[in-house]
Amino acid sequence: MTYCVGLLLNEGMVLLSDTRTNAGLDNIATYRKMFVFENSGERVITVLTAGSLSVTQTTVARLREAIDDLDATPATSILLAPTMLKVAEIIGATLASVRQDIEGKMNASKITAAASMIVAGQRVGGAMRMFLIYPEGNFIEATEDTPFLQIGEHKYGKPILDRVVRPDTSLADAQKAVLLSMDSTLRSNLSVGMPLDLAVIERDACRVTMRRRIEAGDPDFAAMSEAWSAALRDGFSRIRI
Amino acid sequence: MTYCVGLLLNEGMVLLSDTRTNAGLDNIATYRKMFVFENSGERVITVLTAGSLSVTQTTVARLREAIDDLDATPATSILLAPTMLKVAEIIGATLASVRQDIEGKMNASKITAAASMIVAGQRVGGAMRMFLIYPEGNFIEATEDTPFLQIGEHKYGKPILDRVVRPDTSLADAQKAVLLSMDSTLRSNLSVGMPLDLAVIERDACRVTMRRRIEAGDPDFAAMSEAWSAALRDGFSRIRI
Biological process GO terms, please (chains A, B) (predicted)? Predict the structure, then answer.
């Protein structure tokens, strides 16, 4: 399984993904689920993936092929597309098409091969936008009312986001919020695992302004996790019913 | 939807259920999901239900019929069954049978009618036991390693239980833990709703020792919820990354 989350805030966007994948129950591996497409200063597009690894890898590979194609056009390359909406449409169409191809091959075994994605980006002169793309290729967009999107095992880590994330949350608090949301998920669901990929895209930078891989045993993450546990235990013990 | 949770602790058992049901998206109503079968001082059995309302209501009705039957035997009545394991087997068999009956009627419309239950109880001279009964009638049991069971929308409220519930948790702390677990679920999922039913069964009492309905707007619950929010915000603001 997977947990990925993206926040769309006044100051910028914050993205976090885990890296655990499994084929069946026992074939567990580590794969990056965060992909960056960047023309620094002109546009940045970050894609987070959840679901069938063969679908997400093939989708990302086709997006890269379309970018590198000598005949690339604004209708085929996400680095040439005129708007973020058009970027989301290209990615949605590619995802749905790959899924159909792969499910066609798997029909005999009645296995489905669905995947979903979070697409976050900005091009120079445009607004920051963040989309959740469904397996069928349609999508929804983060807004002021709902400034975060999640894919994969999203329920364990939703309560903390519901409580603390607002459009005016600072980028520092936003990083804390997504890391604590992931921490709750890691503790409650063994199918989500370290290392983590964290990225920050500041408003109007049109590039990834901070990117960090957090390995298992990272002392800062462990200290934050322990401090949060202590704060919860402490808060719990002070409540009277 | 539903959220029900049961804790099996050294000092006793604590059970909590919501009351929201819906048929489709717009037909929302309030139904009790906690049922008590008691022969005070001799045995107590509490059943929490999740899933298709027609299945859970019919299952509970059949269990009551079997108890009231003049020809009731230890093999048919949960108030006569010799052990809690046998009680779980009777309830599991009744649940699976009702489900088959109802799904038989619904075959034409390809709708499933699954339900699951938490069964918690003790008879005099026996141990406290708690089971999660699956729609197929099989079940698992709470143990020292996993001293809580959940049905319905269980993921939002699991992180708090994972952090604070141990077999030696006091009954007072246990009530706090299930209420905070429910509070997180209520905030993150609109399909779970007040009022709540809370019950405590102290070890070896063989009866429900405390039972309380918590209505929407209950001042104690609201104060606890607000105190928890404040503790989380406070803990969050003190963490450095």
Answer: proteolysis involved in protein catabolic process
| CATH number of the domain located at residue range(s) A3-236 in this protein | 3.60.20.10
Residues on chain A touching B235 (C-beta within 8 angstroms): 228, 231-232, 234-235
Average pLDDT rounded to a whole number, residues A225-237: 92
Q: With an 8 Å Cβ cutoff, is B228 touching chain A?
A: yes
- Percentage of residues in chain A having pLDDT higher than 90: 85
Positive/negative CA dihedral, B56, B61, B66, B68: positive
Residue B188 has its nearest CB partner, among A158, A173, A238, at A158
Q: Identify the band that residue A158 occupies on the pLDDT scale cut at 50, 70 and 90.
A: very high
> Amino acid identity, residue A236?
F
Main-chain phi, psi angles of B99, to 5 degrees: -60, -45
Instruction: Check residue A1 and give its pLDDT.
Output: 82
Chain A residues near residue B173 by CB distance under 8 angstroms: 236
CATH code for the part of the protein at B3-235 = 3.60.20.10
CB of A50 closer than 8 Å to CB of A2? yes
Distance from C-alpha of A235 to C-alpha of A99, rounded to nearest angstrom: 46
Domain ranges of chain B: 3-235
B235: nearest CB among A177, A188, A228: A228
